[in-house]
Design a protein that fits this description.
Layout (H helix, E strand, L loop, with lengths): L2 E8 L4 H4 L5 E5 L9 E9 L2 E10 L10 E6 L10 E12 L6 H20 L3 H6 L5
Antiparallel strand pairs: 1-2, 1-6, 2-5, 3-4, 3-6, 4-5
Length: about 140
């Protein structure tokens, strides 16, 4: 897949933090979204540092919202990045967007998604992971 995007971190609704998954909401620089709704493994560049993360693109149908959101949950990163420019590279789709019956079902799925993304990066060959370093 290896699509690259960049944007600014903006304030969201705070739902991710509420559920134990604080995310950086992204406003894309070019406002063009060529990403299908779903969850993805991503490599993120913030201040020339590389991080792994889990990207969500969708309308949050569990909460009956309509506006598309782009948000990233970071692994091993917990800093204030509001108003920062970041770039990210999609490396693997994990699943399509799902409407859950309850918030508890959503949280269970987020834990499962996180584990799937973690396993993906853990088993990524070193030669491939070297190619994923982003230059912003």
């Amino acid at each position: 897949m290896l699509e690259k995007f960049s944007g600014t971190v903006v304030h969201g609704l705070g739902k991710g933090k509420e559920f134990g998954f604080p995310t950086a909401n992204i406003k894309l620089n070019n406002n063009e979204l060529s990403i299908e709704k779903g969850v993805y493994a991503v490599v993120v560049n913030i201040d020339n540092q590389q991080y792994y993360g889990m990207l969500y693109v969708g309308t949050r149908p569990t909460f009956h919202l309509q506006e598309i959101t782009i948000e990233i949950y970071f692994f091993e990163f917990n800093e204030d990045v509001y108003d920062k420019q970041i770039s990210f590279q999609i490396v693997q789709k994990i699943r399509d967007e799902i409407q859950f019956q309850s918030t508890d079902d959503l949280i269970k799925q987020l834990h499962y998604d996180k584990e799937m993304v973690y396993i993906f990066f853990k088993h990524l060959p070193k030669t491939i992971s070297d190619l994923l370093i982003l230059n912003s």
